[in-house]
Design brief:
It contains 22 helices and 17 strands. It is of the alpha/beta class. Strands 10, 11, 12, 13, 14, 15, 16 and 17 form an 8-stranded mixed β-sheet that branches. A 7-stranded mixed β-sheet has the order 1-2-3-4-5-7-9, sandwiched between helices. Strand 14, helix 17 and strand 15 form a beta-alpha-beta unit. The longest helix has 18 residues. It is elongated, with a radius of gyration of 26 Å.
Length: 508
């Protein structure tokens, strides 16, 4: 039985996309055509397209500028929406919006990860009365994203522009990968900004990929090329379950990367700098660490990894950056990552070396209390297995933010270098004995301070805390990986019992 030649010709014409001059423009910019992107992302012969013939009767609108498909990545099914920049610059029309909503509904009903390959000029103003007001118009796409949040993984790869209202598409995704030099997201263009405010700014300054990954926090991972960005999608999905009702798949265990042991990496002196990345390297399977928001608020490290093949999420202070102190941005970063892991059944490992939250008038005006409360809220709300390791110091509310004992982790354990207290000895002695210190002079003052610091340090001695069972264990660095393996294996079977309520009132 032969296929209808007219149908074949229509399909071939649609799959070619827009006019050749627009393909040439893509190539000149070093960008791939939408179907080339999908071919590189998806397993061969796994793609099923929805709405291929959409607007086929309208000249110059093949597929109405968006390709919507189901397919497989590494044998696992996914749903994908991908803008076609060769048709109307990828802008959204009335059928574009219908197709995006339809693929979201398929992802919802079939419980599939939802991927957005974004490269679009935004909405078509000449069709605005067909796309903006009604229940099934463009806003429904964002409503659907919110309904999908925490149900299935949602990943946005920003390969080009995402302007105005469309900028919210990446904002509602779990992971946003941006291609350096190509991706951009902004509510108002530089030209609009100049007209409205008089500000003159470049596109990169306004909403470029590097700015969003380092300054605004909208971007999670900065990719150098499209090929790298698409490969990162496949790697990230390897840590994710298909939906909230499943657990991430295990993988064969690998030994950690070679390097100095943890006992040598972490100095006992509380103010000496060390690199927490090296500690992470000693704990996780080699090559398994997938960092999220590396360029944003780098005083806190967040990322996915494997420990003996098991997927875990890591939240770690970084003493090399601002002493590991928590700020508003790092609080938001940590909260969002904890919510992500809790949504998709990923156990959490906290590695604490935190002096606390930043103080001062500037951060108070920025809302450090409000932002810090958001992190505390996320940690307390999480019901996945949680292990807190006090690597060195954990003072004040920083101890709580890193899931210290009062925030009920499954285990709070410490390395021998750990110290736990409301504050460090130096400021504590000054706060407690200020009047006496000011009344003394010279050597008498110094001797008094030394004695009070010694007394304070005795009170917060780690083994004294352990002897009172305030913490669950003290573990040498060389034994920490195996300790974590055993504990996570034990806690994996614990039931999850969220608080019965409609929703908590999230700070901020």
């Amino acid at each position: 039985m032969s296929l209808d030649p007219d149908l074949l010709q229509r399909i071939e014409a649609i799959q070619r996309g827009g006019h050749e001059k627009y393909h040439q423009k893509l190539r000149a910019e070093g960008k791939l055509f939408v179907r080339e992107r999908l071919a590189r992302l998806l397993d061969p012969d796994s793609m099923v397209e929805e709405g291929l013939l959409a607007r086929c009767a309208d000249e110059g609108l093949p597929a109405d500028a968006v390709v919507t498909v189901t397919g497989k990545i590494g044998g696992r099914p996914v749903a994908v929406m991908a803008n076609d920049m060769t048709v109307k610059a990828g802008a959204w029309g009335r059928v574009t919006i219908q197709k995006i909503q339809r693929i979201q509904e398929i992802a919802r009903d079939a419980q599939l990860p939802m991927l957005y390959l974004v490269d679009s000029a935004g909405a078509r103003l000449d069709e605005q009365f067909d796309i903006f007001v009604a229940r099934r118009h463009s806003g429904r796409i964002f409503h659907n994203q919110i309904q999908l949040s925490g149900v299935v993984p949602q990943v946005c790869v920003l390969l080009g522009p995402s302007p105005a209202g469309a900028a919210y598409m990446p904002a509602f995704c779990d992971l946003v990968i941006m291609v350096d030099g190509h991706a951009s997201a902004y509510l108002g263009s530089p030209r609009m900004s100049e007209m409205a405010t008089g500000e003159k700014v470049t596109m990169e300054e306004m909403g470029g990929a590097r700015m969003h990954c380092a300054v605004s926090g909208l971007g999670d991972v900065l990719a150098a090329t499209e090929e790298e960005a698409l490969a990162l999608v496949a790697r990230y999905l390897g840590y994710m379950p298909r939906s909230w009702q499943e657990a991430p798949a295990a993988a064969p265990a690998r030994v950690p990367a070679p390097g100095r042991p943890i006992d040598e990496l972490v100095p006992a002196e509380q103010n000496r700098v060390f690199d927490m990345y090296r500690v992470i390297d000693r704990l996780v399977d080699e090559g398994s660490f997938f960092e999220v928001k590396r360029l944003f608020a780098p005083e806190l490290i967040t990322g996915l990894a494997r420990l003996h093949g098991r997927v875990i999420g890591i939240v770690a202070n970084q003493p090399k950056v601002k002493g590991g102190v928590l700020f508003s941005d790092s609080s938001d970063k940590g909260a969002r990552f904890v919510w992500l892991c809790n949504a998709f059944n990923i156990p959490l490992l906290f590695l604490a070396d935190v002096p606390g939250f930043m103080i001062g008038s500037q951060v108070e005006r920025q809302g450090i209390i409000r932002h810090g409360a958001k992190l505390l809220f996320a940690v307390a709300e999480a019901t996945v297995p949680k292990i807190s390791v006090i690597v060195r110091k954990a003072y004040g509310a920083g101890y709580m933010a890193m899931s210290g004992g009062s925030f009920l982790p499954d285990a709070c354990i410490a390395l021998p270098t750990a110290r736990l207290a409301i504050m460090a000895p130096e400021p504590a002695v000054n706060a407690i004995h200020l009047n006496t210190i000011q009344s003394l002079e010279g050597e008498a003052r110094q001797a008094f301070i030394r004695e009070k610091r010694r007394e304070y340090e005795e009170k917060i001695d780690l083994y004294r805390l352990a002897s009172e069972f305030f913490i669950d264990a003290v573990v040498p660095g060389g034994a920490l990986r195996e300790e974590l393996r055993r504990r996570f294996e034990t806690y994996a079977a614990k039931p999850r019992r969220p608080v019965r309520r409609w929703n908590g009132v999230i700070p901020g």
